[in-house]
Amino acid sequence: MDFAQAIIEATSDVFNTMVMLEAAPGMQATEKTTAFNDAISGILGFSGDIKGMLRINCPNQVAMAITGSLLGMEVEEIDDDVRDAIGEIANMIAGGLKIYFTRHNHIIELSIPTAIGGQSYTVHSLANAEWVAVPFTLAAGVMVVELQFVGLK
Amino acid sequence: MGKKVLIIDDSSTMRKIVTRSLRQAGLDFDTILEAGDGQEALQLLAKESVDIILSDINMPNMDGIEFLRQKSANAAIKSIPVVMITTEAGADILAEAKSLGAKGSIKKPFTPEQVSEVLGGLM
């Protein structure tokens, strides 16, 4: 299973269909980032044959650009709309990954997405989990889509 | 009398996107009502009549499947057509939605054209 490619396809589908912003995928990340400044992370857990989480990490400028394009309006500050939009982007990318897992005979259930953010925050990783992260370059900056999971046999 | 649509989704962003897509698709509803989950939708439907419902599946409090179940048991609202708009593309969950009366489904992410195609046949 090529998880980086699955992330690229699911993310590109969301950006090409609904966000309407170019998001160019880069090389798979090799180092985890757990501390963020002036950023928002959309997070969604999943359970079933494979357990894990999907997280998208966006600098504030990227989050505002995505929200503005998604809603067709100017966004100049981080508000509930931006937090909700980033959670929903995570939800749709996770939906694409669910299809990928199903094609490989792994059934998962998605949780409700959440978003965290702020001037300075840290995130935690699942213990002993597989980790795959792909950066996407937008005009406003770089967004990283991370997949962590355990239980794949 | 003008057409009314009810959009059920816990994401306010998604409710706005669906509203925008309806307009871009040329589906001009006179009134667009919104609910954040199935429970809120049932409360709203006790007071308001609508022509069609667009509902998410994964929602807190009451999800789209339970909403369909309760709607189908309520004679006053059971005939209102429902289209699911969801990231849940699994055949089993969509089959369950269909067995509970859903008339179609639109997978997120979606285009206004896809919304038009599914709703066009129901209007």
Question: Can you tell me about this structure?
Answer:
- With 153 residues, chain A is of the alpha+beta class.
- Helices cover 35% and strands 37% of the residues of chain A.
- In chain A, strands 1, 2, 3, 4, 5, 6 and 7 form a seven-stranded antiparallel beta sheet that branches.
- In chain A, helix 1 (3-19) crosses helix 3 (80-103) and helix 2 (60-71) crosses helix 3.
- The longest helix of chain A has 24 residues, at 80-103.
- Chain B is of the alpha/beta class and 123 residues long.
- The longest helix of chain B has 13 residues, at 12-24.
- The mean pLDDT of chain B is 93.
- Chain B is 39% helix and 20% strand.
- The two termini of chain B are 14 Å apart.
- Chain B has helices at residues 12-24, 38-45, 64-72, 91-99, 112-120; strands at 4-8, 31-35, 52-55, 82-86, 102-107.
- In chain B, helix 2 runs parallel beside helix 3.
- Chain A binds chain B through residues 13-14, 17-18, 67, 70-72, 80-81, 84-85, 87-88, 91-92, 94-96, 98-99, 102, 107, 110, 112, and chain B through 10-14, 16-17, 20, 58-60, 86-90, 107-111.
